[in-house]
Amino acid sequence: MGSFFKNIYRNKALLFMVLPGAIWFFFFSYLPLAGTIVAFKEYRFSRHGFWASIVRSEWVGWDNFKFLFSTDDAFTITRNTLLYNIAFIVLGLVFAVLMAIILSELVSRKMSKIYQTGMFLPYFLSWVIVGYFVFSFLSMDRGLLNQILGWFGMERVQWYSDPKYWPYILILVNMWKMIGYNSVVYLASILGIDKSLYEAAMIDGASKWQQIKGITIPMLTPIMTIMTLLAVGKIFYADFGLFYQVPRDSGTLYAVTNVIDTYVYRGLMTTGEIGMSAAAGLYQSVVGFVLVIFSNYIVRRVDRDSSLF
Amino acid sequence: MQSSKKRFSFVLAMLTALAVVLAACGGGGSAAPGDEGSAEKPVELIWYTIGTPQKDVDKVMEEVSKYTAEKIGATVTMKMIDWGDYQQKMQVLVASGEPMDIIFTASGGFDYVQNARKGAFMELDELLDEYGKDIKDTINPAFLEGSKVDGHNYAIPANKELPQQEVWRFNQNLVDEYGLDTSKVRSLDSLEPLLKTVKEKAPDITPFAMDKNYVPYVPYDYVIQNLPMAVKLDTTDYQIVNILDTPEMKEALATMHKYYQAGYVAPEAATTGSTADLGKSGKWLLDRAQTQPFADNLWSQSNGYPITSTPASDAIITNNSVQGSMMAISANSEYPEKAMQFLNLLNTDPVLRNMVDSGIEGTHYKKTADNRLENLDESKNYDMPSYSLGNNMLLYLNPNDPENKWDEFKTFNESGVDSPILSFNFDPKNVSTEMTAVQNVKEQFWSSLMTGTVDPDKYLPQAIEKFNQAGLEKVMAEAQSQLDAWKAENGK
Q1: Does residue A39 form part of some domain?
Q2: Residue A303, in any domain of the structure
Q3: How deeply is A222 buried, as exposed, middle or buried, from its count of CB atoms within 10 A (0-12, 13-18, 19+)?
Q4: Is B20 helix (H, G, I), strand (E, B) or coil?
Q5: Residue B375 in 3-state DSSP?
Q6: Given this structure, which CATH class describes domain B2-161+322-358?
Q7: Domain map of chain B by residue range?
Q8: In Å, how far is A257's CA from the nearest CA of chain B?
Q9: Structure confidence by residue, pLDDT tens digits, A198-222
Q10: Residue A242 belongs to some domain of the structure
Q11: Which of A271, A274, A276, A283 has the most B C-beta neighbours within 10 Å, making it the best mutation to test the interface with B?
Q12: Total structural domains in chain A?
């Protein structure tokens, strides 16, 4: 016991730095965990506050989960959510690392900063704004793309009612928005790589490509693995704004734009059952949790040092 | 050592601050001693209402409180929540047991029926009898009758226009310019010659303005707004039907598709959230809207150019129109009797009602006659939505209001015909799983069908099939059995 406190005292500076985050997690992630029981209840207000409401609401077992699996849509939304997220994870990783390497290889630091900021900007835009950007390209009568098609004498496209283009559009838009943010992490770790490694490689006559392949990528592998593992945990969560705002909630596109989050939103707008939305959230996190544990297990089998825990 | 001591006291200070914040969050809940609620020792009523928060709310409520403390022994604190946030913030506030007494509720803002069933509001039957007699004498009885949920009142509706009537609105400038005749317009089909003329003569005008919420009018009342279950207005057997299966809707959708293909409707109507821009630019010929007496004046004023209208439907009293603006007493209210006394006063006392609506006399407005007022410059700091704050017919008239304004409202209300399912409120509790699936199908097909964007010959059968797969038939059967029980109970 004594060594425990000694340990704390010795690491007080580090622990102090962790404190704000720990408090945040306690209040916003651990404390609300108790509330997940509402997923198994039919929530009714009680005049004695939130906890009384939860305690007094009726147990309904798994009833709140049924709506997620009851129709043909269950397959569509699960497929869409999974496939889009896999595409985002894979392409996001490849392009973010690529961009980070390109930026780090730029000779002019100033230009590198300018490009970096430029790529970072879309990350700060809300999806509503991005939705309007996309609309200015795809609008039927005034959109840029249809104007261009018109110049070449081609038929105008009803973008917002033809599902076949949307997987590409959504992936493209998501990449454009997220890549700057993701590449910053990799750029930071590239800048942290010991320069003497590159000097030694150059003395041995290694080309740029050999340096990247032999030094940069291997040095980035642990952070790539961690970022990917974290992304896998969110694989059942879809970015609501992307799938709702960007296709302008167009019904004819649902076959390729309906994901778990939009389905839940549309389904519960009228009935407003808190229990059912809690059930959807719980389902998403449990699947995410299992996937993280599973993929971490595999990573640990392959390379212990790269695993999360 | 000095510095680590300092650090320690900093941590201590932070923790204390945190503790204080937490304690403040958990506060509330005071005992009520005997002599509370008199003019000397008034109780405080907390009132949540919808609208953009106004700068002078507290100032005005101070005046209001002086008046109400005198009359009923209660003071009033008003908390306004902005339009777009109201629904969501109220869900959280009510769920977390935040102290409150009076809550604005409507079919479209912190949903009335749903939250009454979930126990957010206090049942008012006895309170109404005891403290709300004047309300019963003053407001049109159809309001209280129509807003019953499972046989009980949970809120006091604002006395205002009672029926719902659809009209075609015309941009009068264009009507004059192209010499159109609007007098023969009523049905959807009757619009065609007008739309055609404008399309040919002015290609940059949108002849038929609509957003994605547009639904062609058919003489049915929906069991739940915008779900395809409905009952025909002149029904005798109270049969709930799928609106997409009715001959009226089929015909309307075919007409809409014809209009869409002819270019009378904007190509992106099915995904357009609002036609406000179109309204500002004046580049539209006609659209459909719900009316009230002297609505043309209001519309012309807000658009800045003349708008006229002709009826597109009869005036029907529906749940939706009755439940358009109400005030409920929170289930956790500490002073429900006082709250009811306040609502009673608000709905019957012109002094209080106009103070709440227009602010302080001499600061925000000046009176020009017994029942007329004129806004002063300061009124921009207290610009309230009149419809949400109780009995509208007590309001003083604005300079350009006609003298007979409220009489016309009364006549309009008299002209309304009850919907057969007025005051029947479907309880989706037993079919909530199916409801979410049905809702999703609705979102998928509704706008594109209703705006005429897609061909109903192809998509209507698809939509009906998907609705049935999602369980619409089960939902309809449940609704039908509830309706039959309701019908038997009410002797229809």
Answers
A1: no
A2: no
A3: middle
A4: helix
A5: strand
A6: alpha beta
A7: 2-161+322-358
A8: 11
A9: 999 999 999 999 999 999 999 999 8
A10: yes
A11: A271
A12: 1
